[in-house]
Amino acid sequence: MKITTFTPNPAIDCFGKADKIEIGEISRISIQSKYPGGKGVNVSRVLLALGVRTTALTPIGGYTGQSFIKLMQEFKIPFSAFKIAAETRINYIFENSNGQRIKFNIDGGELHKEEQTGLSAWIIPHCGNGDILYIGGSPLKGMDEGFYLETADTAAQNGVHLALDISGKTIFNLSDVKYKYFKANLEESCSIFLRRPHSLEECYDFSCELDPDKEIIISDKENGAALFTKGKIYRNFMRKTKETLCSGCGDALFAAYLARRTQGDDPKVSFNYAGAAGLSCAFSGVYELCDKKSIRENLNFIDTERIK
Questions:
Q1: Residue 168 pLDDT
Q2: pLDDT digits 0-9 by tens, 89-105
Q3: Which end of the chain is more exposed for a tag (fewer CB within 10 A), N or C?
Q4: Whether 181 contacts 132, CB under 8 Å
């Protein structure tokens, strides 16, 4: 089985260091490294590290789009690119001498209507029957709810299981979207609960409204994550945490969960492994994400309990 990822709004992520970062002051930044970024790209990177077949799909455009392609080749990520008019965005993450980080995410360009139609039709042929199609991250401007509905319908017709990890402006009522797997952080979970829970515990009370055939993960930073499936609730608790801003922890968690599910593990075992992957990412370098070795080392710091 293969997991194809689609990142609607990819980015070149630039990481730099500064002695100090202060509002109203000039900060001297030295760019240390550049990475191909976006949720789907991160997920594909983790899947590759875990030995799962994957292809990353992205729309790209302009001079920065060509630079993005070179980075994908540099990182040896199997990918396919759909050319659009808008420039691929650049994000920045800076770290001061104390290890504190600040990240600036750029909105990205605008997708024209005819490009959206072509993009939706382009995605599914990259997937086979029984495969998983992961869609994650913020959308390009102009990418509307119809894109997700059309892609989900086409995926279902072709026997492809849809996995969604939405963020930012992608938030909408998902009741009409045909998906199998879903992940969101607590703030964005209103798209399935149709209200905004304030804690994972509050999500427990809303879980009776969820489709039991779906596998839904809600994460809440250092408070861990909850899995809802088959009328059951599982909760990950971490016995070590890190407050520094870490990119990709949720992506690593979901990628590891999907990887283990495709390899035949049950939801609870997969969720426990996923928690260790997210924790591994938190304690890795800025964009090192995780690998099998770091996940094994962090399994001892994850407790997974059945709540209901």
A1: 57
A2: 999 888 887 777 788 88
A3: C
A4: yes
Q: Domain containing 117: what range?
A: 1-179
Joined together, the tokens standing for residue 181 give: 């797997």
Does 206 lie in the same domain as 61?
Answer: no
Whether residue 143 is found in the same domain as residue 193: no
Average pLDDT over residues 193-202: 85
Q: What angle do CA 156, 157, 158 make, to 5 degrees?
A: 90
pLDDT one-digit tens code per residue, 108-146: 889 998 898 899 899 999 999 999 999 998 888 888 878
CA dihedral in degrees (119, 134, 102, 283; nearest 10)? -150
Residues 248 and 42: beta-carbon distance below 8 Å:
yes
Q: Are residues 137 and 206 in the same domain?
A: no
Q: Are the CB atoms for 218 and 193 separated by under 8 Å?
A: no
Give me the pLDDT at residue 275, please. 95
In this structure, are 171 and 43 located in the same domain? yes
Terminus-to-terminus CA distance in the chain, angstroms? 31
- How do the residues of the chain divide into helix, strand and coil, expressed in percent and rounded to 5? 35, 25, 35
Which DSSP helix (H) or strand (E) runs through 166?
Answer: strand 161-166
Q: Which positions ≥6 away from 129 have C-beta within 8 Å?
A: 158, 159, 160
Q: Which two tokens stand for residue 287?
A: 């964009």
Structure tokens at 290: 């995780």
Residues 162 and 54 in one domain: yes
User: Which value, in Å, is the radius of gyration of the alpha carbons in the chain?
Assistant: 19
Instruction: Say if residues 56 and 78 touch (Cβ distance below 8 Å).
Output: yes
- Collapsing DSSP states into helix, strand and coil, what is residue 291? coil
Residue at which a domain ends, from 179, 194, 218: 179
